Task: inverse folding
């Protein structure tokens, strides 16, 4: 009963500060950006400036190159122009297909920052068609897909998990601390402390506010951007679990400090550390252990699953359960600390 | 209702004590005051008795509950009015009281009645952020009564308030006293202590120097003098005469019998003067 | 006058040092720069990741390592488990005299073809290809990731200066020390300058420090200085306007979050949008700052360009300031 009273009061107060409105507006801005500025799929096209030896124009390759309509392949008349053109576009490569002593030569020019491995792969890739046509060529490679589905999300939808994790899940980390310190400054915590209500009721009520805000902004964004292509039940449960986890961590950190300014450093570092998982989310080949152990890493992928047609529910609910358990642990620890320090 | 034995408290958890070996008792229906300058240990003691600070060393009980680990139910029986107003600025006066009463498990008083008592019923639906300091303090004060507490803790109830508001608050305290409430108040204002308290404790540097009723203290430590202003040959004259010394008693008699008395009053020692005498230090 | 300004700055530094917050703000950008440095070195060498089990011989593993990042596992099951993890990695094992590649199915498009290519080429090493391949480069060692990452960080750090001021001012408002200063002989302008200095010193310190750490070679640091000053100016003004109009940190941080969007948005827009969309970013001083910083890193910047871009930034800043000055003045009362 006390919990409900506190929660309703906190809800009232947070609507009277601008905070909730700002969060909703921000979510709407993100939606607008996602829908109207971000293309549905990124097309990465690296340009290739190619010079073709005039002697090769009549060949099959020559005809293929001259009749191509791809933007990526640009034929140049002068081999010497290639370095200059490449300087203007640092993502491009250059190449000359020449005929030397009756033999075809692929003279590839890279920028210079590419790695040894990359060069080796390119070298092989250039000759693969030729190699495949040789009589002694043998390919003994077969491919098997392990995953139940090889669904890919559009690049736009792929961005939603990032937003959901950082804004709806981890926003709480910081804001909950701010709420508590605001109460401390106002002195209202002391008034609360001399009533029969318990510390955990106070903390839980704050958690509730963050949860309401997180759910509101998260669902608003998901609905407007992804429409019906979301498993909403799983999304809501995951949002709740990740949000309370973030808030519980925020409470725990805040319990070590007297005011928001002191706590901000630790909170800030924690949020940014968690945000690093985004790098690996976008660059799957770069996943050092130090990022894999961050809770935000599986959180990102769990959110991604709920947007797939056939989500891996085992994965989603394993981590949902884990976040809930961790949330409880951090909450208990925070409660113990706050019992001693809240009114000091 | 309140019992304190060998109470020690250190903010730095070492030998620097803010409260040193304090012992006292407050009976039911009594108004007990802690009188002392800032930093004396008044708020610290009150903090321990209201559960805001942990009981480090010694024993304390409030309304029958041991303050070592007070159960939450205890808070149904006490009310605390803070020196610094701590109301929710974003809620209205009425909203603040309506919210607060729901935190108690016992019958509560009517919010509008309390606001009337505080003289702020006309701004019941205004946000507390728009209130003056005095209004916020009155709201904090009546909020502490909402659960009709048996034991009422008041921390500097009239400090910083203008005389008319201070007077209103004093009247409320006196009424509650008549109702039989046990009141523990802290103050550095001797007039308040003198006017309201059944007994006062002088506390300084964490040590409780003595506990007695204001009357007994004045009788014990007071000098007995009479200030008299009279007219002699058309000119106003002023004298301070002891009513113990024989020659002064004769002179007093002589003046009363022979001259036109303009002003006369007994000059008892004030609590402040007694405080300085006993502790060697002032109240501010 | 100068002494009063420095006195204010000194208090801010002292107070900030006591709260580790400002310390974190000072150190943190270097941590970010360090991470970017690490990323650019490791990301550059990634082509494909492959996990092999014990059926793949040492020779083949050595061969594969010239083309891909190889992780070895001593059993098929462990290898399959590794493939099933969330990152992009393929599995390779021998089966029925041939090779079996395992994929999850959601790896980046085209990468499995690269692996196919590499594996097939191992068995066909001896085949003579009737083509010669020569690979050279134009000696440009700066990857786009490092280039854009560096500019982004440098500009982002300038915004942090504004954040410090914001926090500072809200703290003064909460503690009501602002009122105390208002009744001292300190002039309003002295106070503003004293508070604002931090918003310039930090970004300069950070930008130059970070660029040195990332080692872009002989770039013109004076140009960096000029660009940083101009972007710090608008950050300081934003920091002030948010800081003095909010008396609680929550609203202040929310307002700051809203500012981050145009900052990051205009920089990402400048990087990813094609040139025809760029006029839509002209309103943003951060766009111009990015263009300057990018040109400086590429060693293509001219003083004419820097001065023009900085002029645009200051012009936009001036307009913004005109709009906000009343607000700032009111808030400082």
Result:
């Amino acid at each position: 009963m006390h919990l409900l009273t506190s929660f309703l009061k906190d809800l009232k107060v947070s609507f009277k500060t601008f905070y909730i409105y700002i969060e909703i507006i921000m979510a709407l801005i993100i939606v607008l950006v996602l829908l109207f500025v971000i293309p549905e799929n990124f097309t990465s096209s690296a340009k290739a400036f190619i010079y073709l030896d005039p002697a090769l124009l009549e060949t099959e390759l020559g005809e293929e190159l001259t009749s191509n309509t791809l933007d990526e392949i640009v034929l140049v008349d002068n081999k010497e122009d290639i370095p200059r053109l490449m300087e203007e576009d640092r993502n491009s490569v250059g190449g000359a297909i020449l005929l030397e002593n009756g033999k075809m030569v692929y003279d590839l020019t890279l920028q210079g920052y590419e790695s040894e491995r990359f060069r080796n792969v390119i070298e092989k890739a250039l000759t693969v068609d030729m190699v495949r046509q040789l009589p002694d060529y043998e390919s003994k490679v077969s491919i098997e897909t392990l995953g139940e589905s090889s669904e890919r999300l559009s690049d736009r939808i792929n961005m939603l998990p990032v937003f959901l994790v950082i804004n709806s899940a981890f926003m709480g980390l910081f804001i909950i601390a701010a709420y508590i310190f605001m109460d401390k400054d106002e002195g209202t915590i002391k008034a609360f402390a001399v009533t029969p209500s318990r510390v955990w009721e106070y903390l839980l009520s704050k958690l509730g506010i963050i949860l309401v805000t997180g759910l509101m902004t998260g669902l608003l964004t998901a609905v407007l951007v992804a429409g019906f292509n979301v498993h909403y039940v799983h999304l809501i449960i995951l949002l709740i679990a990740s949000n309370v986890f973030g808030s519980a961590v925020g409470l725990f950190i805040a319990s070590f400090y007297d005011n928001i300014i002191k706590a901000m450093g630790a909170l800030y570092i924690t949020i940014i550390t968690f945000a690093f998982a985004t790098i690996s989310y976008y660059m799957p080949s770069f996943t050092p252990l130090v990022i894999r152990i961050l809770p935000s890493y599986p959180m990102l992928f769990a959110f991604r699953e709920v947007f797939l047609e056939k989500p891996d529910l085992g994965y989603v609910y394993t981590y949902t359960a884990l976040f809930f358990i961790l949330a409880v642990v951090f909450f208990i620890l925070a409660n113990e600390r706050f019992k001693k320090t809240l009114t000091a | 209702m309140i019992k304190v034995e060998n109470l020690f408290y250190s903010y730095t958890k070492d030998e620097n004590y803010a409260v040193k070996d304090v012992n006292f008792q407050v009976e039911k229906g009594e108004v007990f005051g802690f009188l002392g300058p800032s930093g004396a240990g008044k708020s610290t003691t009150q903090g321990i008795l209201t559960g805001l600070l942990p009981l480090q060393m010694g024993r304390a009980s409030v309304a029958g509950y041991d303050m070592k680990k007070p159960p939450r139910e205890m808070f149904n029986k006490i009310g605390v009015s803070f020196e610094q107003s701590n109301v929710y600025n974003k809620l209205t006066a009425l909203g603040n009281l309506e919210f607060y009463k729901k935190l108690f498990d016992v019958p509560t008083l009517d919010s509008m009645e309390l606001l009337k008592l505080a003289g702020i019923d006309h701004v019941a639906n205004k946000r507390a952020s728009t209130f003056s300091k005095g209004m916020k303090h009155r709201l904090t004060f009546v909020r502490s009564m909402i659960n009709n507490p048996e034991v009422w803790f008041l921390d500097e109830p009239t400090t910083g308030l203008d005389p008319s508001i201070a007077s209103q608050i004093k009247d409320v305290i006196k009424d509650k006293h008549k109702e039989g409430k046990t009141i523990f108040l802290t103050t550095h204002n001797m007039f308040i202590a003198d006017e309201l308290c059944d007994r006062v404790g002088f506390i300084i540097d964490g040590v409780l120097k003595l506990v007695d009723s204001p009357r007994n203290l004045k009788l014990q430590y007071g000098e007995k003098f009479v200030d008299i202003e009279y007219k002699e040959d058309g000119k106003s004259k002023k004298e301070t005469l002891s009513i113990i010394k024989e020659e002064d008693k004769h002179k007093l008699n002589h003046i009363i019998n022979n001259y036109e008395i303009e002003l006369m009053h007994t000059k008892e020692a004030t609590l402040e003067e007694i405080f300085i005498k006993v502790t060697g230090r002032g109240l501010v | 006058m100068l002494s009063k300004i420095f006195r204010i700055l000194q208090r801010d530094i002292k107070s900030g040092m006591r709260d580790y917050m400002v310390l974190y703000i000072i150190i943190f950008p270097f941590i970010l720069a360090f991470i970017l440095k690490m990323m650019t070195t490791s990301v550059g060498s990634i082509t494909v990741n492959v996990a092999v089990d014990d059926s793949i011989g040492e020779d083949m593993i050595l061969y594969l390592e010239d083309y891909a990042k190889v992780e070895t596992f001593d059993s098929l099951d462990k290898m399959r488990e590794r493939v099933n993890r969330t990152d992009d990695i393929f599995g390779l094992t021998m089966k029925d005299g041939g090779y079996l590649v395992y994929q999850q199915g959601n790896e980046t498009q085209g990468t499995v073809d690269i692996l196919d290519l590499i594996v097939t080429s191992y068995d066909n090493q001896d085949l003579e290809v009737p083509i010669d391949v020569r690979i050279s480069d134009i000696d440009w060692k700066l990857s786009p990731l490092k280039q854009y990452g560096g500019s982004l960080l440098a500009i982002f750090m300038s915004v942090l200066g504004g954040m410090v001021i914001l926090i500072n001012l809200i703290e003064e408002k909460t503690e009501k020390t602002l009122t105390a200063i208002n009744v001292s002989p300190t002039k309003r302008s002295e106070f503003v300058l004293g508070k604002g200095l931090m918003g310039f010193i930090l970004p300069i310190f950070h930008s130059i420090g970070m660029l040195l750490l990332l080692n872009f070679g002989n770039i013109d640091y004076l140009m960096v200085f000029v660009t940083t000053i101009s972007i710090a100016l608008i950050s300081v003004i934003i920091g002030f306007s948010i800081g003095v109009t909010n008396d609680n940190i929550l609203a202040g941080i929310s307002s700051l979050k809203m500012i981050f969007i145009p900052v990051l948005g205009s920089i990402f827009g400048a990087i990813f949008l094609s040139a025809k969309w760029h006029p839509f970013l002209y309103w943003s001083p951060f766009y111009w700052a990015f263009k300057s910083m990018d040109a400086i890193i590429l060693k293509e910047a001219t003083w004419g360009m820097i001065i023009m871009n900085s002029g645009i930034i200051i012009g936009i800043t001036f307009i913004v300031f005109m709009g906000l000055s009343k607000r700032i003045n009111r808030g400082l009362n």
